[in-house]
Amino acid sequence: MGSIVDALYKVGISGQDTIVGINQGWKLSGAIRTAGRRLADKTLVHGGQRLMAWAVSNARVEPRGNAIVITKQASGTAKIDPLMAALSSVAWTSANPALPQPSIFD
After folding, report:
1. How far apart, in whole angstroms, are the C-alpha atoms of residue 13 and residue 52?
2. Strands (E), the chain
3. Where in 13-105 does DSSP place strands (E)?
4. Which of 25, 38, 91, 93 is the most exposed place for a label (fewest CB within 10 A)?
């Protein structure tokens, strides 16, 4: 992690408010549920990419106590990285709702 922070600093990105960590594992349970609700009410829209559709089809949700998790172990050898990146984005934007959220189309 230190080398990544150093590289970001070299290109002018620095500061504790700029670099934040995103939880993983059961702590993404809220993001999983939020993504589902946002997809249902169309405030989050799937872009129709085949890669994301493939990653979502590989995902396996496991209940763990009161939480739900999506893990690589449950998905076997299939890749779910694009889905996990999307869930990390949901977690980040949910934690910072006042920040502007530009569209990829802008």
Report:
1. 29
2. 61-64, 67-70
3. 61-64, 67-70
4. 25
Alpha carbons 46 and 29: distance in angstroms, whole number = 19
Which amino acid, one-letter code, is at 44? Answer: L
Ranges under pLDDT 50 in the chain: none
What is the structure's pLDDT at 76? 67
**8 Å CB contact between 35 and 90:** yes
What tens digit of pLDDT does each residue of 7-35 get?
888 888 776 666 677 778 888 898 999 99
Entry pTM: 0.70
Q: What are the angstrom distances between the C-alpha of 79 and each of 12, 47, 66, 70?
A: 33, 19, 25, 12
- Angle formed at CA 35 by CA 29 and CA 41, multiple of 5 degrees: 140
